[in-house]
Amino acid sequence: MKDLHGSNAIVTGASRGLGVYIAKTLAGRGVNVALAARSAERLEETRRACEALGVRAVAVPVDVTSLDDLRRLTDTARRTLGPIDILVNNAGIELTASLVDHSFSQIDDIVRTNLGAPIWLTKLVLPDMIARRRGAVVQVSSLAGKAGEPYGAIYSATKAGLIGFTDSLNMELDGTGVRASAVCPGYVSEAGMWEAQGLTAPRMLKEVPPQKVADAVIKAIGGATLVPVTSGPIRPLFALADLMPGLNLWVARRLGVIEMMRGQAERLQAGADRPPVGDVAAGGADAQAAQRQ
Ligand SMILES: NC(=O)c1ccc[n+]([C@@H]2O[C@H](COP(=O)([O-])OP(=O)(O)OC[C@H]3O[C@@H](n4cnc5c(N)ncnc54)[C@H](OP(=O)(O)O)[C@@H]3O)[C@@H](O)[C@H]2O)c1
Asked: 27, 32, 130, 147 — which has fewest CB within 10 A?
């Protein structure tokens, strides 16, 4: 989809982090936006910022893990904006912990938020898109979906799942006028969940600003299927990793990523360095203990 002006989009995870940049970037291109997340007040701030850019914007507080909430989101979006042309599944959570320290309910939360909800929401918007022969579905995956992130096994699994989902969906959507894409950010500075960890990315994969992710979403809507968002070219490394199983582990060791994330997991587990974002997504000993079942 090239001409976005006057289109209607749903953006999840628009209360903070990358979702705010994505929503404002779409609004800046004349796209009306339905904004979803749980925090109503912060969502309202994003709504006002988008409206100030001259588009119609509606805030719909929802928990994306609730199918009823997602139905309410799509109904409200259609009623207030019109048919949905663009879906950006951006809401996501992570937990930096070894698999043995993930509780079963935390595993369930991460899978339902990062993978289940995007699949449900895609299923809800797709029939109208196909009927109108117009639509773009963008999944905000991660580099962790291409190369596993240490101490983020469930997170990485969900992000890889989004890439598989996108790849398969594009085959059945071939010729329908609707396209699916996955955007894969590496480490993002200034806003979002990596910034909240308070760590420094390895030099080879240094951080990118959040606007680069929002620009990648525009590129995805324009037709790119898989859009990595890193500080340098990463596709040759993807290709090499496919040819050489074990390369990801070697690179992660060499870059010190395993050590860095093990240290972070241990700090969070000990509750010594609770990150500022106060939910399960951000970890922290209290949140982890509360969730352990
Ligand atoms: N930041 C990075 O470096 C990075 C790198 C690669 C990929 N990503 C991906 O980018 C996306 C955005 O991440 P971010 O960095 O912006 O994280 P963030 O700052 O933690 O924001 C996450 C967003 O998701 C929403 N959300 C979480 N659980 C939800 C739920 N159950 N229902 C509704 N909304 C929910 C949050 O809103 P509420 O809490 O208000 O509900 C918030 O708006 C995620 O999919 C993440 O995996 C981020």
From this structure: 130
Ligand 1 centroid to residue 9 C-alpha, Å = 17
Q: Is 277 in the pocket of ligand 1 (CB under 6 A)?
A: yes
Tokens 């949905």 correspond to 84
Q: Which domains does the chain have, with CATH numbers?
A: 8-291 (3.40.50.720)
pLDDT digits (tens, 9 = 90+) for 106-155: 999 999 999 999 999 999 999 999 999 999 999 999 999 999 999 999 99
Round to the nearest angstrom and report the end-to-end CA distance of the chain: 45
Q: Which atom of ligand 1 is nearest to the CA of 210?
A: 1
Structure tokens at 248: 């990801």
Quick check: CB of 23 below 6 Å from ligand 1? no
Q: Ligand 1 pocket, 187 CB below 6 A?
A: yes
